[in-house]
Design goal:
Length: about 325
Amino acid sequence: GKLGISHFWLVSCTERGAYLRVGKYPRGPTLTFHLEGFSLSKDVKASQRRPLSLESNDMKEPPLLVLNNFTNGPDHVNIMATVFENMFPKLDVKVVALSNVRRVILVDYDSQTETVSIRHFLLRATLAGLSKPVRSMVVRHKIPHLKGLKDISQIAEEGGAGFVSSDSEGEGPEESQVNLPQNLGRTKRKGGKTTLRLREVGPRLTMKLVKIEELFCEGKVFYHAYVHRSAEEAFEMQRRHDMRKEEKARRRKEQEENVKRKQLLKQKRKWGAEVRDKDEVDDDGDDDNDDNDGDDDFDTNNISEEAGSDVEDEGKQRKPTDGGKPLQRKRKKTR
């Protein structure tokens, strides 16, 4: 989708227990699990002597997914493995940066009880072959306590056994020690021997698959742990499912047609209102022009009449006179 969400984890609770639905968005499938047991992150931390907390940098990169006992299983087990595998982006071990691999998610399937267990770990790499005090000086730049030591060389000679406070801080077996193929941080260089440790941060989930649906939270049921149908019942269920699907498609098409019809009607009304407003504006303009034309004619006639009367008056006042008597024009005699 637009938010980049590919899977949904939906938790619900009924009288029979808690359920978890894992759905691939938007086309499915959807896996429904019954939660047999779970532990929150705070419960996991409370059981540890020195718990670790997730940091902001730990959540920036996707975790490393480890699937156990999912091979050579029935179809519903293969579907589970595919859903969990596609939930996280794939990592190319040839080009991935070791500094980006900070978390591990372990998904284990128990074929005897048909349960799935999920664990969440932090992956930490520490220098191998160093005691705890020397490691503190190298990594944390912290001077260890020298009380009870006769010589400074005893810090390195102890080999870490006398300074280890818990089993999780030991060197571990030889299988956990690897040679780094690239630099990791400031102190762990390429080719150096490093010990890999997993520290659980939670949560823990133990669940059992109940059913698998074809689509996202709906559709045909591929697998059900408790309900088993015959071939006739499966055919009838498929027929009803197809009928519901066709009915849904018909209603959607009808709804789309209604939306288009309403939009077209709304557009026609809008155009009609615009045309009426334009006609009213044109009528108002014609009335104003008519009024202006009448005023112009009236004013012109008045001006012409006034001009004519002024000319006549001026002509009367300017008649030629001779000694106070009006001059008479002499008529020419004709033979």
